[in-house]
């Protein structure tokens, strides 16, 4: 009887966990395919706020499920850049070409690896800050740094991997000399990545302080 009870609890817990991941995944997909909401086209790239539910999901559900949500984030980017491409979409999908330049294995690495890490790193940043502060309640500093770190992981890894895999092609697509392409990448990080990180930090604090409250977490079953 005891073993049956334990098995029953495990099944309920697994089902609940799947439902929680599905809820966040649905939010990511909704944002991704709502025009000008999840992905905002800027010509040379797309700004995004989709990393925010991935970060929140990581903090609530843990790094494994956060990584799964990051994969969903990457998948929406892959689909968007395949069916609705911009001039630089070849860096995110192997199924789009621009003249002589086309995507490849590097495109898949750029599209998925940084996004998966968005669902992992903020969890450990938050936990590390909270441990240093020795706080039991939600840490405002921890939430802010978790949000900022998640956004910067995405931007910094994506842009630097573009330089590693597609330096010449990316320069050509943006009308930039190959020798000046890293300066262009730094400008994208400054113009696009820094505001994204600030917004992510603020929203993560606002939402996280509510969702990470002990009573709220108990009601949500996390």
Automatic annotation (TrEMBL):
Species this chain originates from: Blautia hydrogenotrophica (strain DSM 10507 / JCM 14656 / S5a33) (Ruminococcus hydrogenotrophicus)
UniProt cross-references to Pfam families, sorted A to Z: ECF_trnsprt (PF12822)
UniProt keyword annotation of Phosphoprotein present: no
Name of this protein: Pantothenic acid ECF transporter S component PanT
Annotated coiled-coil segments of the chain: none
Gene3D superfamilies: 1.10.1760.20
TM regions (residue ranges): 21-38, 44-62, 69-92, 104-126, 138-166, 181-212
GO molecular function terms noted in the UniProt entry: transmembrane transporter activity
InterPro entries tied to this protein: ECF_trnsprt_substrate-spec
Keywords: Membrane, Transmembrane, Transmembrane helix
């Amino acid at each position: 009887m005891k073993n049956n009870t334990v098995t029953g609890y495990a099944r309920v817990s697994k089902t609940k966990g799947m439902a929680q991941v599905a809820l966040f995944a649905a939010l990511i997909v909704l944002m991704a395919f709502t025009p000008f909401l999840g992905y905002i086209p800027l010509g040379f790239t797309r700004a995004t706020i989709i990393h925010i539910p991935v970060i929140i999901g990581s903090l609530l559900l843990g790094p494994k499920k956060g990584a799964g949500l990051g994969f969903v984030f990457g998948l929406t980017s892959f689909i968007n850049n395949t069916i609705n491409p911009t001039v630089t979409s070849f860096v995110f999908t192997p199924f789009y070409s621009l003249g002589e330049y086309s995507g490849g294995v590097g495109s898949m690495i750029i599209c998925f690896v940084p996004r998966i890490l968005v669902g992992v790193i903020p969890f450990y940043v938050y936990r590390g800050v909270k441990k240093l502060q020795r706080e039991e309640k939600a840490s405002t500093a921890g939430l802010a740094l978790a949000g900022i770190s998640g956004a910067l992981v995405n931007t910094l890894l994506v842009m630097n991997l573009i330089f590693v895999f597609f330096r010449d092609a990316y320069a050509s697509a943006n009308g930039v000399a190959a020798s000046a392409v890293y300066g262009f990448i730094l400008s994208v990080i400054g113009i696009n990545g820094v505001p994204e990180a600030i917004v992510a930090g603020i929203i993560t604090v606002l939402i996280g302080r509510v969702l990470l409250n002990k009573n709220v977490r108990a009601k949500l079953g996390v």
